[in-house]
Structure formats: C-alpha cells, structure tokens
Structure prediction request, 574 residues.
Amino acid sequence: MPVGALAVGRDVTQQRQTEEALRLAASVFHNSSEGVLVADAGGVIVSVNPAFTETTGYSEAEALGRKPSLLRSDRHGPEFYRAMWEALAAEGRWQGEIWNRRKGGEAYLEWLTINRIEDHAGNPVRYVSVFHDITETQRKDERIRHLAFHDALTGLPNRALMQDRLQHALERAKREGSRLSVTFIDLDRFKAINDGLGHDVGDMLLQEVAQRIRKRVRVMDTVARIGGDEFVVLMEELDKAGDCACLAQELIAEISRPLELRGHTVQVGATMGMAFYPEDGADSLELMKCADMAMYAAKAAGRNTYRFFRQEMLDRTSQRLELEMDLRRAIALHELELHYQPKVALVSLGAPPGVEALVRWRHPMRGMLPPGDFIPLAEECGLIVELGAWVLNEACRQAAEWQSRGLETRIAVNVSARQLADGDLAGHIAALTANHGIAPAVLEIELTESAVMANRETVARLLTRLREMGVTVAVDDFGTGYSSLAYLRCLPIDVLKIDRAFVMDADRNEEDAQIVKTIIALGQTLHLTVVAEGIETPRQAELLTALGCDVAQGFLFSRPLPAKEIEEWLSGLK
Prediction:
C-alpha cells in the first residue's frame, strides 16, 4: 500500500474519533439533568441546554444573545456579583449558592459552578456555567433545623433554642447593664383534661394557651414550650420586677378564660415562677433552675398564682436533696430501725392484741429522726417502695426472733399507696413470711383510706388474697378521708383505726366525741375491731372505754420502743 494512502487512512480515523467525541459531548450537554449556560468572552449567552430551560423557564431562543443577568434576583447586592467576577478573573472559577429568578418571577436557589475557558494565549473565550436547583433541598434543611429548635405542636422555640436565646440575652444584659427575667409557667389541671377528654383535646388546649401567651407578651420577648404543659417566657430590658408581676397577673387571667374545644368547655389555671438577672443568677442554667423552684413554691401556695425566686427556696431544695441522698445511703447502710408501740385492749388490760412497727432513722449527724421527718420525702422521691420493703422484711425478721423465744405478737406494718401499685404485695408477703419461717397471720397490714380508694377494684383483689393468707387488714387514719360506708361494707377489712386528730380532743370537744362514737358504732355494726390512736390521758381512755372502743394505742400506755425494750414491756404483762 502506498505511503500516502496510509496517511489518509490515519487522518480519517482521527477525524471520526473527533466527531464521535463531539457527538458524545453534545449528547451530554443536551441530556444533562443540570442546567448549562455558555457565554462568550463578553458575557453574552451563546448556548443553553434543555435543563436550563426546564429550570429557568426561558427557551433557548429567549436566552441566546442576552446576558446571564436576565436571571438575576433581588436577593444579592452589587458586592456579591463583584466578588464573583473578581474570583473568576483571579482563579478562573467560582462556585457557590446563588438566588436567581425564573421567567415567571419565582426566586429559586441554585448551586452554581462557573469555569473560564481560555485560548492558547490565556485569554478568556468562553464562560461555562453549570447549575442545579437546590430550593427544595434547602427547604427540607430549614425544616429539619426548625424541628430541631422548635416545638412541633405549638411552633414555639423548644428548650434548646430558649437556652441559646437566654445565653445571648445574658451576654447583652452584661454588656449593657440591663435586667432580664425568666418565667416558668405550668398549667393547672391539664393532666385531668388530657386524660379525661383525650390527647387531641389536650393538644388543642396547648396550642391555644401558646397563642394566648404570645399575644400577651412583647414582640421582642421569647415564649418557649419546654415539655409537657410547661412554658417559659424570656423578657429583656426590664425596668423593674413589677413589670413581670403585672404580666403574670395578666397571663393567669388570660390562660384561665374558658375554652371551647371539640364541644367541651374546658378551663385550666396557670402557676408561675420568676427569676431575674442579675439578682438571682448569672448564667442560663442557674436562672432556669431558680425560676423552676419559684414555680414549685407557687404550686405549694395553692396554684393559679405566681412567686418570685427567693434564696430560702434554694436553701430548702438543697436541704431536701441532701436529705434524699442521706436517706438512700441510710437504706443501703442499715441506719434505719424499727420501734414498736403496743396496742392495749380497753376491756381487759391483759396480753395486748399486738404492736405497730414504726420506722426510725438514726441519722449520723442529726440523731434519731421520727417518720414525719423523712416519710413524706420518701413518698415524693419514690424511695417509699424500697423503704416499705425494708420495713416488711425487718418486721418479719423480728417476729421470727420473738417466736423463737416464745413471744408471739401480731405486728402491724404501714403500707403506702405506692407499694400497693408497685408489684405483687401479697406474693411478696408470702415469700417473706415463708423465708423467715413465720405464719402470715403474724402480720397486720395498715392502709390509709386514700390508698384504699385510689383503685378500689385492684385493692379489693389484693385484700382478699391477704385475708385468705391469714393477714389482718386495717384501715388507718379513718375519718380523715372518704369514710365511705360502701367501701367498708364491700372490702375485706378487719380493723378500723380512728385518727388521733379526733381522739385527742374527744374528752373536751362534743363534735369530736360524736365522730368517735359514730365510728365505733359503725365498726361494731360491721363486726370490725376498732382501734383508737393517740391516747395520752386517762380521761381519753375512760371515754373510749365507755363508748365501746376495742383497742387503744398511745403514749398513755407506752411510747414506741426499740425491739429489746418492747420485748421487756410485753414480757412484763405476763
């Protein structure tokens, strides 16, 4: 083959390769999902692809011969475009987010990359812009950011955003020497409405309350929902605390107005606590804590009111926390002990019908503490279940020890409502008595009226099981709660204990005497043993005897005594 022919063949092959490359580039250009705009050195559009038209709304004919400024929105100032062209001149490339406008006038956000194409001499000949619409992506990101810092139900800032704004507000207040306040708002009776009428009504109520709070505060103030039915208001640039007091009164009145929700007329109250910078704290967490404590002080004062933070609130909270930690340690380190108070049969002063176990705390620093100093705390913080379990076990252990020495007496143990609701009390007692080798009949379980009435069906089943085991069941503090003849008649109860509040003045107060007489008569009618607590004088004992009371208990006969001393006291009656 001639040499010339080979050269021609090679040229044709290279041409075909070039043409194929151009066809491929054209195909990519036209089929790309990203918009492409090509401008000449003067910035005039010379080519656009279909994706450009789809995104911007401008056809190829409408775009060619014009400059990219036809897409310009009013979202950026001249300095933005100046910086863009400076980057292109210096680096030959610019990349970033830019707001442009479609043909129909709608602004959209795009991610844009512009590259400068140069000739062999380094002079710009083309500018190629490649972009894609990221408006929807940005909306989703903004939605995610919004959800991260706002309450989904009310649209208010959440705890994280409130703390962030409070931190910035504190920094401003420190710089400017101004004051600010944090107000905690807790809705009264919300749980009853939410549980009784349904969560949808509860949600509507929260949304309405949020709107009422926002309408009552200034535009510059922040209202947040930090969880459940708790709201927080941040007020800056305060002149005096009285401004907050006025706001609190207005908010209480506004929130308390009746609401019509799903055919129901509902009404809630509001309890508020306020703390101030710089008086009550210098950082956000401290101010939030102080406002929270003030709110709980307002709850203790009767709800539907407000309180300013006071230092003694923090002192009481610190003391309570310290006592709670000490009590947890006391249970673990066996600093608790049981004392026993005998019950005396009024008709015959022979062998007593039993003793009541009363827990005492031998505190390493404060000495011997009576139950009134720590039982309410144990109820509040949930330790009452663990404490009650210890008391039951210790009473069974002591009964077994006395039994081994020939001293048998029934031991009454107080059981809280939390113990009734927490697990299988009857099964627990059965296991304890079996483990200590004593009969369940050695135990008497004392329940308050409120504990019995809290869940009558469940309690009735439990008391029936205890009765079948041989455990005696007593209702303590009778007369201070429901005092319902219906539940006395239906529940398996053996003993009624008249509250000491009626006994202590029965010999001097005719009304108390009549109450005691009525309870005794009720007990006799239902064939229940009646026990009078708190007898301290012979006159009280004589009156109770005359009224027909079966059993007495009080300081007249004996104070609660340690196990060894009560054992000696009981042995002395033989």
Q: What stands out?
A: Residues 53 and 509 are 97 Å apart (CA to CA).
